[in-house]
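Students often ask why inverse folding is considered easier than folding. One informal answer: many sequences map to the same fold, so there is more than one right answer. In these notes we will look at a single instance of the problem. The structure comes first.
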């Protein structure tokens, strides 16, 4: 149990604590550093408090038993490899406050079935390989606010159908963002496909 006097969890703080099963992070913590909980292979779930604004690079990478993660609406960025190789993670909700998902953020989350973005999402960018090899992911809806998607963002997501709120591909998206050529529905198309009212 981390006391309320702690304001940040520094890099490598709990790296490879392989028997760590649970942890309580107090509301005083504002940042979680690089590799802070990386390779904590027995950690099954964690709630990030609403005081945290950033999740560092590889902060929870290789937490192979992590089933669920709660990201609060205070978080604005998800770092590189932040949840990569979390092979038991099944779902994640990205709050509207998050403006960037860095490269490889959820790479090799092979059991990830659901990625949901809050309404009124402010997400602007999805990095290279951000959801690469999320082989259980079947659908994702990319918010209208996204102006940049990196290379191979959804590569090897063999079961994925992509829905885009925008009516056409923004100029800032990499030419091979959909490297695996997954089905894509744009604007009115995705509304029609999902059986909801079409866009104006």
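Output (designed amino acids):
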């Amino acid at each position: 149990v981390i006391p309320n006097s702690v304001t940040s969890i520094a890099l490598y703080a709990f790296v490879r604590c392989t028997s760590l099963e649970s942890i309580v992070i107090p509301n005083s913590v504002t940042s979680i550093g690089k590799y802070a909980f990386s390779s904590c292979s027995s950690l099954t779930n964690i709630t990030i408090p609403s005081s945290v604004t950033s999740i560092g690079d590889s902060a929870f990478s290789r937490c192979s038993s992590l089933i669920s993660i709660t990201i609060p609406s205070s978080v604005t960025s998800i770092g590189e490899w932040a949840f990569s190789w979390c092979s038991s993670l099944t779902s994640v909700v990205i709050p509207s406050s998050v403006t960037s998902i860095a490269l490889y953020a959820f790479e090799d989350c092979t059991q990830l079935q659901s990625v949901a973005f809050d309404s009124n999402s402010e997400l602007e960018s999805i990095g290279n390989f951000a959801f690469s090899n999320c082989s259980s992911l079947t659908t994702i809806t990319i918010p209208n606010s996204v102006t940049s998607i990196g290379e191979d963002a959804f590569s090897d997501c063999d079961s994925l159908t992509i829905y885009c709120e925008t009516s056409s591909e923004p100029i800032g998206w990499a030419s091979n963002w959909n490297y695996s050529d997954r089905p894509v529905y744009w604007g009115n198309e995705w509304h029609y496909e999902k059986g909801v009212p079409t866009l104006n």
